[in-house]
Write a structure and sequence with these properties.
CATH architecture of one domain: Alpha Horseshoe
Structural class: mainly alpha
Largest sheet: none
Strand content: under 5%
Helix content: 55-70%
CATH topology of one domain: Serine Threonine Protein Phosphatase 5, Tetratricopeptide repeat
CATH superfamily of one domain: Tetratricopeptide repeat domain
Distance between the termini: 58 Å
Radius of gyration: 23 Å
Number of helices: 19
Length: 375
């Protein structure tokens, strides 16, 4: 209605603050969505009145009719596909959607892309301006246009899930609500595009990872690594659902990165114990993933799997090759520390772990690093 991302964000935030102030005493209205929309519209008109340059925009806003109580699923899908318009570079599409749909802060998005906060802030501002200047419509596209935006949409949901599954921020170890929100949105996309193998693959990946979530933290909130997890706490029904989804995607004969990651997760989920994990098969799956989606983080994860199959010395050589590209990534340094410990080099391992601690914000990961440093 406003045609301005920044103003829309501001008035929505103002309307939410108003709700937090009034609803506890006045009660939640019968149609909370409509209440928020009306409050936001009034706030937008107030702000536009103060700026004479926007008289035309204000007149349009005053004349516009408020929509009926919005269906959240439809609203959010429209916003995701609007932000993922091909007129924007794909990284800008993903960054803007994380900001506008998932509510990520600029530092969180920058951390997900391994770039500086200033670089990411500029990218988001340019993307907002481009959407307004290009008159990109607020709707879910049809036919080929829908498929053309799929990669960016899946990237958004993947990054959103990852932030929920293991937060990069300093507040909590896991933001389960965010991970489940990403899963819910992925289900919506799967309903919209039921014949897209990668959509089903991403859904399987999320389901399989969330199936293990109860075992990932102990009662005090400390992180429990995979070798030490109580597998009786894993959700077997969710694992079965994830495997069925993965098989359904595989039957479509259109392999992709999300299906391969889901296959790796399935191997972990179906192993009866840590010692029975099929590391050879996991390395082979990472090899296939590199052919489709080569990145330093995938190479780092492959090296971890390789250490269990070919030994820490070979794995350390591959990790060291990533020193420049992953210098600012705490898991690079903590992985090096683990391998150096296994090779009997505690001084170098301690140095790497201290570097990881400097870069890490997640409280559960920080606590784990500190425990290892004390030992």
């Amino acid at each position: 209605m406003i045609g301005d991302f920044d103003l829309a964000e501001e008035v929505v935030q103002d309307s939410i603050v108003a709700a937090l102030e009034k609803w506890p005493t006045q009660g939640v209205p019968d149609k909370p969505g409509a209440w928020l929309m009306t409050t936001a519209k009034r706030r937008a008109i107030d702000l536009l009145r103060r700026d004479h340059r926007h008289q035309e925009k204000m007149a349009l806003l005053e004349r516009s009719a408020l929509p009926n109580e919005p269906v959240e699923a439809d609203d959010r899908l429209r916003l995701i596909f609007t932000c993922c318009h091909p007129a924007l570079a794909q990284e800008a599409q993903v960054a803007l959607t994380l900001r506008a749909v998932a509510g990520f802060t600029t530092p969180e998005i920058a951390a997900a892309f391994l770039v500086s906060e200033a670089t990411m802030a500029q990218r988001i501002v340019r993307a907002k301006r481009k959407i307004v200047a290009a008159h990109i419509p607020y709707r879910v596209p049809q036919g080929e246009s829908l498929a053309g935006r799929l990669d960016a949409v899946l990237s958004v949901l993947y990054l959103m899930f990852n932030e929920g599954y293991l937060s990069r921020g300093p507040q909590v170890g896991m933001r389960r609500d965010l991970a489940e929100d990403a899963l819910w949105l992925a289900r919506l996309v799967a309903t919209l595009m039921p014949d897209e193998a990668e959509v089903i693959g991403l859904l399987a990946l999320m389901r399989l990872n969330l199936a293990r979530s109860r075992a990932r933290f102990d009662e005090s909130g400390e992180m429990v690594l995979l070798p030490d997890q109580d597998r009786n706490l894993w959700d077997q029904a969710a694992i079965s659902e994830g495997v069925v989804l993965l098989e359904r995607a595989g039957a479509m004969r259109a392999p992709g990165p999300y299906q391969l990651q889901a296959a790796i997760a399935a191997l972990h989920c179906e192993s009866k114990s840590w010692d029975e994990t099929d590391w050879h098969q996991i390395v082979l799956l990472y090899d296939a993933l590199l052919r489709l989606s080569d990145s330093p983080v995938v190479r780092l994860n492959r090296a971890v799997a390789l250490s269990h199959f070919a030994g820490p010395e070979i794995a350390l050589g591959e990790v060291n090759d990533l020193a420049i590209s992953l210098a600012g990534y705490h898991l690079f340094h903590s992985t090096r520390a683990e391998l150096l410990d296994q090779l009997g080099q505690p001084a170098l391992a301690r140095e790497a772990r201290l570097h990881a601690l400097e870069l890490c914000q997640n409280p559960a990961e920080r606590s784990l690093l500190e425990r290892k440093l004390r030992r």
